[in-house]
Amino acid sequence: MAQTLEAVLSQEGDAVDYTPSGAVAAGQVVVLNSLVGVAKTAIAAGVKGALALEGIFSFMKKVTDTFAVGAPLYWDDTNNYMTSTSAGNTFAGFATVAAASANTEVMGVLRSVDWTGMGTVGLANLSDVAVVAYTAGQILVADGTEYNDVAVSGDATLSSAGVVTLNDAHAEETVLVPIAALGADADLASVIVFAVPRAATLVSVGYLAAGTDFGTVSDASTSVFAVTDGAGNAIVSKTYNTATQPTASALNDLGALNGTNKVLTAGETVKLAITNGSTAKTVAGYLVLRFIPTNA
Fold it and tell me: Are 212 and 249 in contact (CB under 8 A)?
């Protein structure tokens, strides 16, 4: 009578029928393509027997190999032992007891029936990944349908070691804008000191003092540097006072930049204002602007 059901349970799956062409000894490991089984009893040539596909067994192992609990076991069907080397061998299961290099056996649980084919899964096995050439430095990018390996281009390049390199148009640049000396109680009204030729992000702003005479800077007579964008939005501001004194003949960092206003559009200007108290002075120097162009 023909089977009408899509599937009918034949056996539980912890063992499989096996008829060997040659005699098999009890406890002998048998590899059937990707399945690894153990003969429960001796099986004569041409006689149907059974191979266990599950269970915990003590297996012969490669003496120099070591296994931690849970480490994968691979059966070497040429040398007839378990090894930690996957290449050329068949996945069999996992170690259930740690085994040192000096041990000749390793305790392990058979699991090849649950793992068949998993040891060789690669990108080519994934349905949403196109043919991958594995070209050095390329990355997987989704195009709306699948993933493709493409080269990084435009503003940067990517090496096979994962190192990203910005092209020359996007390397960090530094501009030094001369600042004239200001006497005590003299101010510099907000004035344009720089304009970015293309979109850029400021990295830092500093005051390179070229002299030593700052007058007397104190809480009562401060010296304030204020840097803004062309619309007057604050990029950074620094107040020198009793506790915070400018350093002579050195680069004085003006502090953390505003995360939004430090990003400049092409042609946008940068302004500087300096306000000195009655006894505070500004020595001649340079406003130091470090920035990275964000498009070519």
Answer: yes
**Distance of alpha carbon 167 from the chain centroid:** 21
Q: Which CATH number fits domain 15-118: 2.40.300, 3.30.160, 1.10.10, 3.40.50?
A: 2.40.300
Give the pLDDT confidence score for residue 121 in this predicted structure: 59
Q: Which two tokens stand for residue 204?
A: 């830092």
The CA–CA distances, whole Å, from 87 to 65, 80, 83, 179, 204 equal 14, 15, 10, 69, 53
Of 124 and 291, the structure prediction assigns the larger pLDDT to 291
* pLDDT tens digits for range 220-279: 999 999 999 999 999 999 999 999 999 999 999 999 999 999 999 999 999 999 999 999
Q: What is the DSSP string of 59-109?
A: EEB-TT--B-TT-EEEEETTTTEEES--TTSEEEEEESS-B-TT-SEEEEE
Q: What is the pTM of this model?
A: 0.50
Alpha-carbon distances of 229 from 110, 169, 261, 270, 276, rounded to whole Å: 69, 23, 7, 5, 21
For domain 173-293, say whether CATH 3.30.70 is its number: no
C-alpha pair distances (Å), 296 with each of 45, 150, 154, 197: 76, 21, 9, 10
**Please, which residues have CB within 8 angstroms of residue 199's CB and are 6 or more apart in sequence?**
263, 264, 265, 266, 293, 294, 295
pLDDT in tens, 267-285: 999 999 999 999 999 999 9
- Domain assignments of the chain as residue spans, ordered by start: 15-118, 123-166, 173-293
Distance CA 254, CA 19 (A): 83
Supply 111's token pair: 């699991």
Question: What whole-number distance in Å separates Cα of residue 226 and Cα of residue 248?
Answer: 19
Q: Give residue-wise pLDDT tens across range 124-147.
A: 667 777 777 888 888 888 888 888
